[in-house]
Design goal:
Strand content: 25-35%
Number of domains: 2
CATH topology of the largest domain: Immunoglobulin-like
Structural class: alpha+beta
CATH superfamily of the largest domain: Immunoglobulins
Largest sheet: 5 strands, antiparallel
CATH class of the largest domain: Mainly Beta
Distance between the termini: 109 Å
Strand order of the largest sheet: 6-8-2-1-11
Helix content: 25-40%
Number of strands: 11
Length: 191
């Protein structure tokens, strides 16, 4: 009634099973390699995105003080003493832009293009803030057509919004308010 399997039949079934098993292992190994490669790529991309995002948030300039030179009862020059904000990396002031928005319009200028250079007050070398104790003086001549072609001297009571944007994209905004009364005796004023 039933035929007894011979030893040869059992071997053929085992070899077929072994071939299917090896094929499954090869497919699983290839899929695992693809997954590991994709995970590595995504990890690298996530690290780069994280670093860029951190720079955009933390690599900011801190404005220590701001003042202006007074001539004929108008402010003709702006001086900003700047430092690194806490937690910032190195900041190259020469690659930093300044945007001015006021009643006279909007102007954007890169610090390295300004007529006045970045002056070292404390610890700055080549316009790069490297330490939290570094201080630099950034001068902007408002009446110089090469610095701000659209602007004239700031008059009494005038307001101006100034935004510093570092190379990484971090921004710091300050508002300049010219006092409502300037005298001919004044040569400078805190803004």
């Amino acid at each position: 009634m039933f035929d007894k399997p011979t030893d040869n039949d059992r071997g053929q079934v085992g070899i077929g099973t072994l071939i299917v098993f090896i094929a499954m292992v090869l497919v699983a190994a290839i899929a695992a390699g693809v997954l590991i490669n994709t995970a590595g790529f995504l990890q690298t991309q996530a690290e780069a995105t994280g670093q860029e995002s951190t720079s955009q948030v933390s690599d900011r300039i801190q404005i220590v003080s701001q003042s202006g030179s007074v001539e004929d009862n108008n402010v003709t020059d702006l001086q900003f003493v700047v430092a690194k904000a806490p937690g910032s990396g190195f900041i190259d002031l020469n690659r930093t832009t300044i945007e001015f928005i006021g009643t006279q319009g909007q102007e954007t200028v890169q610090i390295e293009d300004l007529g006045g250079e970045v002056e070292d007050i404390l610890g700055v070398e080549n316009g790069v803030l490297t330490d939290s104790s570094d201080r630099a003086l950034v001068k902007v001549n408002i009446t110089d057509d090469t610095d701000l072609p659209e602007y004239d001297a700031l008059q009494e009571g005038e307001r101006l919004s100034v935004t510093f944007t570092t190379a990484s994209g971090a921004t710091t905004t300050t508002e300049i308010r010219v006092p409502t009364t300037l005298t001919s005796d004044q040569t400078s004023v805190r803004l």
